[in-house]
Write a structure and sequence with these properties.
This protein has 4 helices and 7 strands; from the N terminus they run βααβαβββββα. The chain is α/β, with parallel strands linked by helices.
Length: 110
């Protein structure tokens, strides 16, 4: 499983995403064993489109953004995510990340 963290330079929420991703991976041992993480920094709209970044930070799982609204265009901007309580945060929750990882693994093996 290829995980790509796509951010703009100095993204204030990149570290939050990476920490939560590490926790989610630790909770899903089989996924963690099969995962490689790549980091990409984009600096213009063309790169944002190339990496399918819907704002920073974006997590791609095998090239797909599990949290993107298909109707939303790619963007060189900050991104927020709605958590389970309905609050907006700078990264998906650990539970949401774990679910996305497990779903991607099931899709790859199912």
């Amino acid at each position: 499983m290829e995980l790509t963290v796509v951010t703009v330079p100095d993204c204030p929420n990149a570290l939050m995403l990476e920490r939560r991703l590490a926790l989610a991976l630790a909770e899903t041992g089989a996924v963690a064993a099969a995962a490689t993480i790549t980091r990409r920094t984009v600096t213009d709209a063309e790169q944002a489109a190339q990496w399918r970044m819907h704002g920073s930070p974006t997590l791609l799982i095998d090239g797909r953004d599990p949290f993107a609204d298909p109707a939303t265009a790619t963007a060189l901007a900050c991104r927020v995510y709605r958590n389970e309580d309905g609050r907006m945060e700078g990264a998906p929750s650990v539970a949401a990340l774990r679910g996305a990882l497990e779903q991607a693994l099931q899709g790859a093996t199912g």
